[in-house]
Each structure stands twice: as C-alpha cells, then as structure tokens.
Amino acid sequence: MTMVDIYDRTELRMQESQLVSVGGVISQTFSFVGRHCVALYVVALAFAALNSVQFFKIMLPKGTTLTIFNAALVATQLIGGMIAQVGLSHATVEALEGRPFSLQDALRVGFGRFLPYLGAAFLLVLAAGFASLLLIIPGIIVFCMYSQSLVLSVVERAGPILAMSRSRQMTRYNRWRIFAVYLAFYVPYLLFFFGVGAYAAIAAKGNAVALAGKMMNIQIATVVAMFVVSPLFFVMPAVLYHHMRRAERSGGLGNLSEVFA
Description:
Number of domains: 1
Number of strands: 0
Order of helices and strands: HHHHHHHHHHHH
C-alpha cells in the first residue's frame, strides 16, 4: 500500500464518518420539542404576543407616529427573536449533552451572547448576500458553509470571525445535507404562507375592501402558524450543530486504525 493509497483511504473514511443524517436531525428536533414542549411553547407564546402587537397599528393615525411604531416593532421583533434563538440554542445543546434544560439559564445566555451572535449573523448575511449577487447556487453554498457560525458563537463562545472559520471547517462534507434540513423545515411553512396569500387574493376578486379584510385574516393565520412551528425553528439549528459536532468528533484520528485494517 503506497502513501497515496493510505491518504486516499484516510480521507474517504474521515469523510464518510463525518456525514450527518438529515432524517436523524429532523427526527431528533421533533422529539426534543415533544419532550420540552411546555417550556418551548412558553417562549413561543411570548414571541406570538410580541408579533400580535402589529394588530394595534390600525388604531394609529398615518404619518410619523405610525412609521415610528412600525420601526420600533420590527426592531423589537428582531432583537427579541435573536435573544430567544441564542438562549434556546444554548439550552438545547446543554440538554442534548445530558444537562438540564433551563429557561432561566437560556435567558441569561440569550442576553450575554447576543452581541457575538449578532456579529456572526451580520457576517453570514453579508457573505450569503454577496454570493447571491453572482447566482442563487453560490448564495446557498455560502449560507450552508457558514450556517453553523450562529450556534458556534453561542455554544463555543466564539467571536464572529472565529465562528465563521469554524463553521467552514465543520460543514465541509455536509453542506447539501444542511440545505436539505433547512428545506424540510422552512418549505412547508413558506408554502402555507404563500398559499394563504394566494387564496385571499383569489377570494377577494379584486375588491380592495374585501382584500383588506382578507389580509387581516392572513396576518392572524401567520401569527398562529408561527406560534405552532417556532419551537421547531428555535431548536433545529442547535440539533443540527449537535449532529455536526458528533460527526466531527467521530472523524478524528481514532478512525485511522480502520485504514490499516
């Protein structure tokens, strides 16, 4: 056996050992939400209440007041969503590694690691957005390449730059599998959202008043749908990270003995 053969076999074994199971990530996400549904839906209810504030804007006069209200609402939703995502990513990984699932700890980490997460999110959006200017496929590849940077900035307490570098290394063999996981969770929700919108447009038959009423129904349906699925969206990135980290560990030097078998 030549050194080239040894290298090729080593690379192949390491690649095979580091592949994650798309079905395994999906299954464990649903299983985890089922086990911790009370705590997760408490967070989802708080987030739904925050999203429901948008219904009060119909009582505000058009102009500067409404503009300020909309801007403040969007900023609060983004910040609140990120804090929830940071805290639940930490709590989920802790629970998957055998430690207690704690909302109190999640809240503490959510505020404590918000800024590094925000930095990693900014770099991820910047990189994926720039790549998408070329073509949609490069944008998808770049997103999948750096997608783990968000969880890494929380769980491994990495700064934004280090988190991006670690994500690129961690996702090396699994980028299309990561894409498949995100598709499995987000496509059904998007189809529901656009389906409801198309139904409202068809049902209104060009009547502006009827369409306005339908739009209110769409907003209510969206808030309810987000309440139902948001625990899955909060938990899935951390479950995916857990599988990626486990696969990364299994692809270490311990497998070299198999090459010489």
